[in-house]
Amino acid sequence: FADLDGLIWYNGELVPWQDANVHVLTHGLHYASCVFEGERVYGGEIFKLTEHSQRLVRSAELLDFEIPYSVEEIDAACRQTVEANSIVDGYVRPVAWRGSEMMGVSAQSNRINLAIAVWEWPSYFAPEERLRGIRLQISKWRRPDPATAPTDSKAAGLYMICTLSKHRAESEGYQDALMLDWRGRVAEATGANIFFSKDGVLHTPTPDCFLDGITRRTAIELAGRRGIKVVERPIMPEEMADFEECFLTGTAAEVTPVREIGPYSFQPGTICEQLIADYDAEVRRKNSAAAA
Ligand code: PMP
Fold this sequence. Notes:
By secondary structure, the chain is an alpha+beta fold. The chain contains seven helices and 16 strands. The strands form two sheets. Strands 8, 9, 10, 11, 12, 13, 14, 15 and 16 form a nine-stranded mixed beta sheet that branches. Strands 1, 2, 3, 4, 5, 6 and 7 form a seven-stranded antiparallel beta sheet that branches. β15 and β16 (264-265) form a beta hairpin. The longest helix is centred in the C-terminal third of the chain and has 22 residues, at 270-291. The two termini are 37 Å apart. It binds 4'-deoxy-4'-aminopyridoxal-5'-phosphate (PMP). 4'-deoxy-4'-aminopyridoxal-5'-phosphate binds next to α6 and β14. Acts on leucine, isoleucine and valine. InterPro entries: Aminotrans_IV (IPR001544), Aminotrans_IV_CS (IPR018300), Aminotransferase-like (IPR036038), B_amino_transI (IPR005785), BCAT-like_C (IPR043132), BCAT-like_N (IPR043131), Class-IV_PLP-Dep_Aminotrnsfr (IPR050571). It catalyses: L-leucine + 2-oxoglutarate = 4-methyl-2-oxopentanoate + L-glutamate; L-isoleucine + 2-oxoglutarate = (S)-3-methyl-2-oxopentanoate + L-glutamate; L-valine + 2-oxoglutarate = 3-methyl-2-oxobutanoate + L-glutamate.
């Protein structure tokens, strides 16, 4: 990814893609003092941009550092980068980290850096394909107790177990992994939240030790508009035997049906179909409204 072309917003300036580098003694690299966001561009507009910028600022606060830009400035910088790279359907990756001025666990006065990269990433909307569903392995890694790690932060360090889980799942033929939490409850996939359905009602784990995703909240709102009830509650893995449909939600995953999780299987059906269509309409709504 480092040898692409384009412009990356780096501490206030647009720099050529291949010059957007950090020093090897960067605190964020050694001690994971780093937070990031993942956003999608649909028809040239970033979906729920301000919510993402707010989460970025909050993620940094939870790691005890302050990004030297306001939410409004971050919004503007994201838009500027999308525009400078002429991205129509793509992905935005803001990342903030402690720099390389001091080396050691304590780095109180290191510079806080912010960079924003964007790239073309069309969202292929092929419902038939999606409705086949993906397969998840149940990971041996568990989401930590909020007393063990700042679990509300989209912090780079929390992704260490996600990469371990996803690599293991992929090497054993699955597309992703389901992670339980430290209590053994169903938590989320490695980069997306999870929902189940039964008798026309949606069930999703209470987000008390993992991200309450922006897509998750959108899905809850969309389900509400259709009159589908959503119950947020603790879900134990054995309960998966009784659920009918299952899907993941996330900025990158959008609404992705699941057909298998370890020994449990699901049948992607009407609810998945409706939410895929509603989500697609929602992310493109403002654009078409603006064009009309
Ligand atoms: N959980 C994890 C671990 C994630 O990385 C993501 C993606 N940001 C999500 C959940 C879903 O969050 P969102 O819908 O805000 O993208």
